[in-house]
């Protein structure tokens, strides 16, 4: 970290230095008023400094001011050098790393790609923007473009160090290295059992009107089982009929058996009619001062069924907080509706959270 150093040139209109030094031709007699009734605070702490007012401007002694601000002072007839005496702050945090699968890849208008990554590390669920500034490479080491990234790829990405406090967090990807490309299967599980030191799940298809096993996936030590928000799930949650999204392969044996990379346990999705109704409810709950900032149209807002204990929820008030706890205790769900705004770069998107039963506002996801 570079040493901080301030240089203040001493001119006829400069600071009043109480050093006793002078420069011929630059000194003239002035009349001022010492204001003992006005105090100076530094970082909220009171000092013994009091300003002198000359021609309507406030002046404070350099030596005393430097001490109050934690600076050393060196003086010669041409300039004042103020050098920080405080321990330099630590170096900026480096990039954050995640390793996982790309759950979705959506092209942005500016040519970048919005990547939803379910992975390991500090943020198991993160949205990264990859663009022309991002270093991207394939498994063979060859350079890729942001547009080459797609759902199902297993990646190791570096991002940050700034991460928006939205949920999921959002950041810019400094680098993305594709390590493998998985196949994706999103369907209800047909069978599930413990086998070969792990778990085995099967998917089926209709043949002559009969459900028949069509694909078998085997978990291993590196297989991750998570919910839609990247949080670790338990294999006992998976039963016949449980909807999941499986990332597997890419190698498949002749018996239609492949290795599992990641399994995402999915909530049952609301119907189109329910989604439309939720959008109407959420639109009415958007704060009036936020309406001019919305970029997402009412009919295009993303709707999600979320857990009451989802990280990042900020209750609207004490009553909402108690209601969220009651819903959690009862095993219920909340509805979250997401809106992009023209303030996203500064404070992140707006997310409305409400009770699907009462249709009342419960809170928002914390913005940056």
- Residue-averaged pLDDT: 82
Helical content band: 10-25%
Query: What is the oligomer described by this structure?
Result: single chain
First-residue to last-residue Cα separation: 27 Å
Number of helices: 4
**Major β-sheet, in short?**
7 strands, mixed
Strand content: 35-45%
Give the radius of gyration.
30 Å
What count of domains describes the coordinates?
Answer: 4
Q: Uncertain segments of ≥5 residues (pLDDT<50)?
A: 1-24, 87-93
Total strands: the figure is 26
H-E string? EEEEEEHEEEEEEEEEEEEEEEHEEHEHEE
Given the C-alpha coordinates, what overall shape results?
A: elongated
Strand pairing plus helix content: what structural class? mainly beta
Domain Copper amine oxidase-like N-terminal: 42-80
Signal peptide: 1-23
Keywords: Signal
Protein name: Copper amine oxidase N-terminal domain-containing protein
Report on this structure:
- The protein is mostly beta strands and 368 residues long.
- It folds into four domains: 80 residues, no CATH class; 86 residues, OB fold (Dihydrolipoamide Acetyltransferase, E2P) (Beta Barrel); 83 residues, OB fold (Dihydrolipoamide Acetyltransferase, E2P), CATH 2.40.50; 94 residues, no CATH class.
- Helices cover 10% and strands 42% of the residues.
- It has four helices and 26 strands.
- Strands 15, 16, 17, 18, 19, 20 and 21 form a seven-stranded mixed β-sheet that branches. A five-stranded mixed β-barrel has the order 9-10-11-14-13.
- The chain is elongated and about 105 Å long.
